Amino acid sequence: MSSDCIFCRIIEGSLPSSKVYEDELAVAFMDIMPVNPGHVLVVPKKHVRELSELDEDTGAHLFRVAMRIEKALRASGLQCEGTNLLQNNGREAWQEVMHVHLHVIPRFRGDKVKVHFGQQQARREELGLWAGQIKARLQP
Ligand code: 5GP
Ligand code: ZN
Question: How many A from CA of 89 to the centre of ligand 1?
């Protein structure tokens, strides 16, 4: 628990939220500034800043909860023809609330979402080089 963290305050109940799910490890509540109606945040109860600091069991649990919410969204009657699961780590990667969380975002034809990733074609040698750098650091 971090008293200056908005999500910790939501979890302990000192800030209001619209919860859709809760268990011993995680909560899920509506994003206050939704990309589309039905945008949900899945959040671990313990205060952890980023994914790299989170234990794998809790990470796997968050994804399991997100999958269940994604299914519920599709059946909810809200506009949801597709979804994006989004997870930002670090200010440079758009993380604004420094308590790890997973977005479940409903999408539909004609929604107003615009994201520009600025992708560029890579050369085969570069791909091989980058793959090698990552493989060398992968934990078994
Ligand atoms: P991030 O950019 O860190 O991945 O996303 C943080 C999300 O938290 C944003 O989508 C933002 O709208 C949401 N958010 C920020 N403050 C609050 C709040 O007080 N209550 C709720 N429900 N969501 C919040
Ligand atoms: Zn927190």
Answer: 13
Enclosing domain of residue 76: 6-113
Amino acid at 28: A
The verdict on residue 123 lying in a domain is no
Give the angle 70-71-76 at the CA atoms, nearest 5°: 95
The CA 109 to ligand 1 mean position distance, Å, reads 24
Best of 31, 88, 100 for a ligand 1 pocket test (most atoms within 8 Å of beta carbon) = 31
Q: In this predicted model, what pLDDT tens digit does every residue of 10-60 receive, in sequence order? A: 999 999 999 999 999 999 999 999 999 999 999 999 999 999 999 999 999
pTM for the predicted model, two decimal places = 0.97
Q: How many domains, the chain?
A: 1
Q: What is the pLDDT of residues 74-128, one digit of tens each?
A: 999 999 999 999 999 999 999 999 999 999 999 999 999 999 999 999 999 999 9
DSSP class of residue 34?
-
For ligand 1, residues with CB inside 6 Å are: 6, 17, 29-33, 41, 88, 94-97
Cβ neighbours of residue 70 under 8 Å, at least 6 residues apart? 83, 85, 104
CATH number at residue 95: 3.30.428.10
